[in-house]
Every structure is written in structure tokens, then in C-alpha cells.
Amino acid sequence: QVQLVESGGGLVQAGGSLRLSCAASGRTFSTTAMGWFRQAPGKEREFVAAISWSASHTNYAGSVEGRFTISRDNAKNTVYLQMNTLKPEDTAVYYCAGDSPYFLPVSQADFGSWGQGTQVTVSS
């Protein structure tokens, strides 16, 4: 199993940028797809982005496509989420997810490991 720790959250003005990082421990990081999800207050957790184990493929939610970029560095056991042109509706706790048996998963049920989450707040 992979242990995941997110960092990089914070408070930013609308239009600004943040980069989230997710550091993973465990031998399976480089062989599993990784993903980011988010949960806003009073809402269900939703898919944000996913990246295949080799970084050859990525997938994004429609609400973030063109603004967010997921990437990974297997040598550093780290996955990133670059978030640009942030909007107040991007405010949420962002979770890193790993340990998936699927090539490019998009469902919460497709992941076996989760981080503790990092808060992102976008002010208007």
C-alpha cells in the first residue's frame, strides 16, 4: 500500500495559482496511476485529475481542464497538481489518491490509498 502526504494548499486570490504536491512512500508508486480529488463544504468528493503510471496519459474533470495540470516524478515518488486561473468555486479540500489497479481511473472506488487532504481557499 502507498502512504500519501499532500502539501501546497493555502489561500489565494481568484486568478492566482497554486501547486499541490503529494509525496508517496511505498514500492508501488511508480507502477500505479495517481489521482486528485476535491471536496467542497457541503458537497460530495469529486474527481479532479488522474495520471497513468508512466505519465503517458492524463484525464481531467471538465471544470478544471485547461486550468489544472497533473504531473508526476517517479524518481521522487511525487505527483503534482498545478492549478492556474483559480476560481472561488475551486475552494475545497484536495486529496491525493493512489494504489489503483486501473490504467487511468476516475472513480473514488478505483483507488486504494488516500492522503489526509490539503485545504485550498480561493478568495474573490
Question: Would you write up a description of this structure?
Answer:
- The protein has 124 residues and is mainly beta.
- Helix content is 0%, strand content 50%.
- The strands form two sheets. Strands 2, 4, 5, 6, 9, 10 and 11 form a seven-stranded mixed sheet that branches. A four-stranded antiparallel sheet has the order 1-3-8-7, with no helix packed on it.
- A hairpin with a 6-residue loop joins β4 and β5.
- The relative contact order is 0.32.
Describe the structure concisely for a colleague.
By secondary structure, this protein is mainly beta. The protein has no helices and 11 strands.
Topology:
Elements: E1 3-7, E2 10-13, E3 18-25, E4 33-39, E5 46-51, E6 58-60, E7 68-73, E8 78-83, E9 92-100, E10 113-114, E11 118-123
Parallel strand pairs: 2-11
Antiparallel strand pairs: 1-3, 3-8, 4-5, 4-9, 5-6, 7-8, 9-10, 9-11
Overview features:
124 residues, 4-stranded antiparallel β-sheet, 0% helix, globular, mainly beta
The biggest beta sheet reads: 7 strands, mixed
Q: List SSEs in N-to-C order.
A: EEEEEEEEEEE
Helix content: under 10%
Q: Report Rg.
A: 13 Å
Number of strands: 11
Estimate the strand proportion.
Answer: over 45%
Mean pLDDT over the full residue set? 95
Q: Helix/strand/pairing class, anyone? A: mainly beta
Oligomerization state:
single chain
How many DSSP H or I helices?
A: 0
Distance between the termini: 39 Å
